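User: What would this chain look like folded?
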Amino acid sequence: MSMGAQKGPVIAVVGPSGVGKDSLMEGLRQADPGIKLMRRVITRAPEAGGEDYTPVTEAAFLDLAGKGAFALHWPAHGLHYGIPKEIESLRVGATAVLVNLSRGVLLEAQDAFDDFRILSVTARPEVLAARLAARGREDAAEVQRRLARAVKPLPAGLAEVHEIDNSGDLSAAVTTALRVLQPVRV
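Assistant: Here's the prediction, encoded as structure tokens.
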């Protein structure tokens, strides 16, 4: 890294299942090539689908965590999630680095990254229900559990949170998010 190279902020993208976090992140990346996406490492089978992630076994994950390979890692929903330390090199020269995080790890992330912000993605309950049903990965009971979790508040003590409504057209949410990110551009 050259002396004085700018590092973009880490932008946590959080929200309930089905809210369109990955779609919003990809839309932002397409709108601004300086925005980078950080792939998570997850103990989820590769054939499970969904987001673009690096699948690993639980044993491999625990080995990586033990070797200090992650800037941040946490368990959720019976899986392990990790953000590789490479996020720091990805930040160099970037407008921002977007990463999908769980609400429960936000305070730890705020401590881990020197420039950290949050996009809290929301959608109306009926929109979430329809999206979850359409993707077909959860049964009706799991859809109801996910909808119940969707209304949980973010932890207290977070410094910079921006809410983005993704109930309608994705391009509107991308435009709103870009306006929020505009002040952080270098």
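Strands lie at 10-14, 35-37, 40-42, 53-55, 70-76, 79-84, 96-100, 116-122, 161-165. If you want, I can go into more detail on any region.
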